[in-house]
Design goal:
Elements (H helix, E strand, L loop, with lengths): L11 H10 L22 E3 L9 H6 L9 E5 L5 E5 L7 H11 L6 E2 L13 H10 L11 H4 L2 E5 L19 H13 L9 E8 L3 E5 L11 E7 L1 E6 L9 E5 L4 E4 L8 E7 L8 H5 E2 L3 E2 L11 H11 L2 E8 L38 E2 L4
Antiparallel strand pairs: 1-2, 2-3, 3-11, 4-5, 5-6, 6-15, 7-12, 7-16, 8-11, 8-15, 9-10, 9-12, 13-14
Helix pairs in contact: 4-8
């Protein structure tokens, strides 16, 4: 069955999820939207950004091109959805990839390995994996490193996968650099007061997928959700407010950013497939490295990624993808149920914090099959 033939039905989304997920025979990808080609058709709209909201200097310090040079798109029937095709400066993606692999995996942030390993075993995931990943593969199968076993990391208000909630007792400081990056992208998208308070980083291997879900755990759903992609490309499905609404398939290439706000904030979405060799080739390692795999200068003021670190990053992304989703949990003056106003942590992340969920579906988490 060809993907475009799917009609509305009891679960049209799951039908297309399985179509793009299947291995034998592999799915026809000719109907997957590719925003990197800049094509505007009946389904795709060109979107204007707030160019004056972010100065060129602010953008450069975060590793971004001037906002006037960004290419942004929307989709018919999905008001509030903005797709920004790789707004990053050449050479800055390695910086953010290293942050995802080396820095954001450190304690006190929380990861899936904490569920079945002791704190001293997960206190330096990068350090315990780097030497192995730097070595040239010898041909025989080696045990997976901790980085290769990593599936998710939570930042700021830590998401509870069991209860689908945040809580005021489970909060650590949100990374200041990621908060700045998110704030700039949100401002360009028309949300100048966005305050990044929670992050979920998903680490996808080539056989991973992200089940069908809606992100609705945050207490203030008027604030956008931001999604950043690094590494291998993926197919992203964006549906409607109901499971019977058939989704639109699109590529997410390395460096692409999505903003989901307004009505699109509560649309079903999923990632059925990671693409090992996406058309066109756009893996971070081949498009942004130079010389013998050493990347160009990274984020302005931050310095570049040295050769040893890049050896780990480039080996990792040969078969992997990292996705950062950033959320604002509380609106201005808002508190968690039962918590007095003004007692939540400030924007810099001091104190404890979290959030609650209106139950509708599972959220986040990479997995090997759809849920």
């Amino acid at each position: 069955m060809a993907a475009p033939m799917v009609e509305r039905g009891e679960d049209a989304f799951r039908t297309l999820f399985k179509f793009y997920r299947r291995k034998h025979p592999p799915p026809d990808l000719s109907n997957v939207l590719d925003f990197s080609k800049g094509i505007v058709c009946d389904k795709v709209l060109s979107t204007n950004l707030e160019v004056s909201a972010v100065s060129d200097g602010e953008a450069s310090r975060a590793g971004l091109r001037p906002v006037r040079d960004w290419r942004a798109f929307g989709l018919q029937g999905c008001p509030g959805f903005i797709f920004i095709a790789n707004p990053f400066l050449r050479g800055s993606q390695p910086h953010w990839l290293r942050r995802c692999l080396k820095t954001y995996t450190q304690k006190p942030n929380v990861c899936n390995l904490d569920m079945h390993m002791s704190p001293n075993e997960t206190d330096d995931i990068w350090g315990k994996s780097a030497d192995t990943l730097r070595r040239v593969p010898c041909g025989k199968k080696e045990p997976k490193t901790l980085l290769e076993k990593l599936r998710w990391v939570t930042l700021g208000y830590h998401y509870n996968w069991n209860t689908k909630t945040y809580s005021p007792e489970h909060h650590t400081p949100f990374p200041a650099d990621l908060q700045r990056l998110s704030g700039l992208v949100a401002a360009a998208a028309g949300f100048p007061s966005f305050n990044a308070e929670a992050g979920i980083l998903n680490y996808y291997r080539s056989d991973s997928s992200l089940g069908i879900h809606v992100d609705e755990s945050e207490l203030d759903l008027s604030r956008p959700l931001l999604s950043f992609c690094f590494g291998q490309s993926a197919i992203f499905l964006l549906g409607g407010p109901r499971r019977e609404d058939p989704p639109t398939a699109m590529y997410m290439h390395s460096g692409d950013v999505m903003v989901m706000s307004g009505q699109s904030r509560l649309l079903y979405h999923a990632v059925p497939r990671i693409l090992q060799d996406p058309p066109p080739p756009c893996s971070l390692g081949t498009s942004l490295s130079r010389g013998q795999g050493s990347p160009e200068r990274g984020v302005s003021g931050e310095g570049g990624v040295d050769g040893e670190d890049w050896a780990v990053c480039s080996r990792y992304i040969q078969s992997s993808r990292v996705n950062m989703t950033v959320r604002q949990v509380l609106g201005p003056g808002q508190s968690f149920p039962g918590v007095p106003k003004g007692s939540a942590p400030d924007a810099e992340g001091g104190g404890e914090g979290g959030g609650q969920k209106r139950r509708r579906s599972s959220s986040g988490g990479t997995e090997s099959s759809d849920t």
